[in-house]
C-alpha cells in the first residue's frame, strides 16, 4: 500500500490542507508533502501523529477497509501467532524500532535497500 496516497486521500476526505496537518502534528508542511508524494518514508511514531491529526485509528493509514482487518485463525479457532508477536522475536522488533527511530531518513532507506538485497540473494540461493 502506498502510505502517501492513503494519507492524501484521508486528508482530502476530511477537507484538510497540508497546512492543517502541519498545525495538528507539528510536522513541517514540506515534510507532509514529501510523505504524501512518496519521497519520504515516515517512522511509526510519525504515522501515529498523522493518525491523530486525521482522527483515525493507525491501521486505517495502511488499510482501505472500514473495519479492522480480521486476524487469521488456526483450524482450532485460536488466533494465529505472527512472527514478532511474542518472545525473542518481539524483543528484536522493539530493539530494531528504537534503532530506526534514531536514524536519519537516508540511513533508514539505506538499511531497507540492504535488507532487500539480502532477501534477493537468499531467494537466488533457493
Question: What is the secondary structure topology, with strand pairs?
Answer:
Layout: H1 3-13, H2 18-25, H3 29-36, H4 44-54, H5 87-101, H6 105-125
Helix pairs in contact: 2-3
Structure description:
It contains six helices and no strands. The chain is mainly α and 126 residues long. Helix 2 crosses helix 3 (29-36). It is globular, with a radius of gyration of 17 Å.
Give a concise summary.
The protein has helices spanning 3-13, 18-25, 29-36, 44-54, 87-101, 105-125. The protein is mainly α and 126 residues long.
Key structural traits:
single chain; mainly alpha; 126 residues; 0% strand
Radius of gyration: 17 Å
Average pLDDT, all residues: 85
Structural class: mainly alpha
End-to-end separation: 27 Å
Strand content: under 5%
Order of helices and strands: HHHHHH
Helix content: 55-70%
Sum up the overall morphology in one term. globular
Number of helices: 6
Give the biggest sheet. none
According to DSSP, the number of beta strands is 0
> Low-confidence stretches at least 5 residues in length (pLDDT < 50)?
none
Amino acid at each position: 500500500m502506498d502510505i502517501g496516497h492513503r494519507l492524501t486521500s484521508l486528508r482530502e476526505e476530511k477537507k484538510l490542507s497540508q497546512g492543517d496537518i502541519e498545525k495538528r502534528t507539528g510536522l513541517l508542511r514540506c515534510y507532509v508533502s514529501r510523505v504524501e508524494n512518496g519521497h519520504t518514508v515516515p517512522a511509526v511514531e510519525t504515522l501515529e501523529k498523522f493518525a491523530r491529526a486525521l482522527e483515525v485509528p493507525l491501521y486505517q493509514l495502511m488499510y482501505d477497509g472500514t473495519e479492522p482487518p480480521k486476524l487469521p485463525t488456526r483450524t482450532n479457532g485460536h488466533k494465529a501467532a505472527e512472527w514478532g508477536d511474542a518472545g525473542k522475536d518481539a524483543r528484536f522488533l522493539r530493539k530494531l524500532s528504537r534503532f530506526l527511530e534514531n536514524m536519519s531518513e537516508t540511513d533508514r532507506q539505506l538499511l531497507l535497500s540492504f535488507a532487500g538485497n539480502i532477501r534477493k540473494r537468499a531467494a537466488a540461493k533457493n
